[in-house]
Amino acid sequence: MSAHWEHFAHEADVGVRGIGPSKPEAFEQAALAMTAIVADPAAVRPAERVHIECEAPDDELLLAEWLNRLIYEMATRHMLFGRFAIELGPGWLRGTAWGERLDPKRHDPAVEVKGATYTALRVGQENGAWIAQTVVDV
After folding, report:
1. Which of the residues 11, 86, 105, 111 could staple to 138 if both were Cys, CB 3.0 to 4.6 A apart?
2. Environment class of 26 (CB within 10 Å of its CB; exposed 0-12, middle 13-18, buried 19+)
3. CB 38 within 8 A of CB 80
4. Kindly report the CA angle at 12 between 7 and 18, in degrees rounded to 5?
5. What span, in angstroms and rounded, lies between the C-alpha atoms of 118 and 61?
6. pLDDT score of 10
7. C-alpha dist (Å) from residue 21 to 26, 37, 125, 130
8. Number of structural domains in the chain
């Protein structure tokens, strides 16, 4: 199984789902799915690196915290991220996001992601793959 991401339908917002052979890869793919709501992740150059650390009492809340920290970095740095690498431990995440400043002409942003919610929030294994999903407010 290769790691990948997908969107799922959810009323006015958008569901993001990361799928991978490991939990960290599922978290990375969920972040890519979130980027893909805004623009094509393949069009984002890894020009700058941003380090992110967060803590939460369980994997589900850690996923929401990870995505919300990325949303914060995207908003305050005016950046998009197209590549991610993370390490996970009990209650903590250390990650790196690579990206570049948003170029409206080249990236053609569709919407702004406002925040990761607790709706449909889930981290777990299914058929041997890790799944990390939630709904994001757009």
Report:
1. 111
2. buried
3. yes
4. 20
5. 8
6. 67
7. 7, 23, 9, 6
8. 1
Lowest mean pLDDT among 2-11, 23-32, 96-105: 2-11
> Residue 90 sits in which domain range?
4-137
CATH assignment of the domain containing 29: 3.55.10.10
Which whole number is the average pLDDT over 98-117?
A: 95
The burial of 66, by beta-carbon neighbours within 10 Å (0-12 exposed, 13-18 middle, 19 or more buried), is given as buried
Provide the 3-class DSSP secondary structure of residue 112: coil
Length of the chain: 138
Q: In this structure, how many other beta carbons lie within 10 angstroms of the beta carbon of residue 126?
A: 9
The C-alpha atoms of residue 62 and residue 88 are separated, in whole angstroms, by: 9
Q: What is the pLDDT of residues 18-67, one digit of tens each?
A: 999 999 999 999 999 999 999 999 999 999 999 999 999 999 999 999 99
Reported pTM: 0.92
